[in-house]
Amino acid sequence: MSAFGFRLLGEDGQARLGQVQTAHGAIQTPAFMPVGTVGTVKAMMPESVASTGAEIILGNTYHLMLRPGADRVERFGGLHRFMNWPGPILTDSGGFQVMSLAKLRTMTEEGVTFQSHLDGSSHTLTPERSMEIQRRLDSDITMSFDECTAFPASEEVAAASMRLSMRWAKRSRAAFVERTGYGIFGIVQGSVYADLRVESVEALTAIGFDGYAVGGLAVGEGQDEMFRILSMTTPLLPAERPRYLMGVGKPADIVGGVLRGIDMFDCVMPTRSGRTGQAFTRRGTVNIRNARHQDDPRPLDEACGCPACRNYSRAYLHHLARAEEVLGLMLMTWHNLHYYQDLMRDLRGAIAEGRLARYAADFAALQALGDVAAL
What we know:
This protein is an alpha/beta fold and 375 residues long. The chain has helices spanning 46-51, 61-66, 70-75, 79-83, 95-100, 127-137, 155-175, 194-207, 223-233, 251-259, 269-275, 307-311, 314-322, 326-352, 356-367; strands at residues 5-12, 15-22, 25-29, 31-34, 57-60, 89-92, 105-107, 112-115, 122-125, 141-143, 183-188, 211-214, 243-245, 264-267, 278-281, 284-287.
């Protein structure tokens, strides 16, 4: 089994071409990770997810802790075997739920006690408990336990939140069990305050992690603010470690993140949008539920090789969406995940060939066209 590590294979400006090696295989970066919160990428079989080109998926500590439980998953040989995904898995630590489930939790220096959104039962997550659960899930990439700072937040509130996360990061690193091929990432916090982001990076790099994530963005601050924070944060992170922008995002966000030195992304957007009838294409987004598609014989995207585009018309996908047929959810989700992996392949190719700036400009121009069916 290979040791966990990151190889930098090429650069184009701040953008990086690389490879992350894990216990369950390698990940080519820049990479997009489909979200499989509760041990499944919604509306997709694992084999279908792999067919899009995805090499790593994401699970969630909090949700898997509640159901089916880390003990049960461990008895079945870990999350890879339990859900039939042989490739790498990254697990979120539960830190996002500290923000998103604020009305259902109590937070102290020790950790967070949640009231289950499923049955009201009480569960406590500490840095140590989060590390234990992620180990039992057999996650290749463990995320340190943090508080995802809500937006907006005053500088005083953001500072207190970030410093708590840094104390939890130190405890997370100490509790992480070293195994060949497995790594732990620290998470940079600090909201939109540059000095707090710098302080967070300094604290995390002093602790020492196998990779570094940028958290607390894409939570309402807007793309310009997100890019501003990324532009000043990523150059501070160790060049020999992978960089992960958590919870991002739209295709334009991903292109902008790659331009600013990010290696890894995840987001529910391609799957959630697929289930609501929105498709991402090379010419912008398509709402397949719109009446203009009901007699349209074209595929969603003429350049896409996914099953939805190879085998079905917009008219049929429109019919499935309006009839609320499960097949429609599956095909639209499959298409979106395929599109996102095509985007990552294109970005890797552009970096390798030194033409990323031109690719990004062409991408923006095509996206601006919007739904071609409306033209």
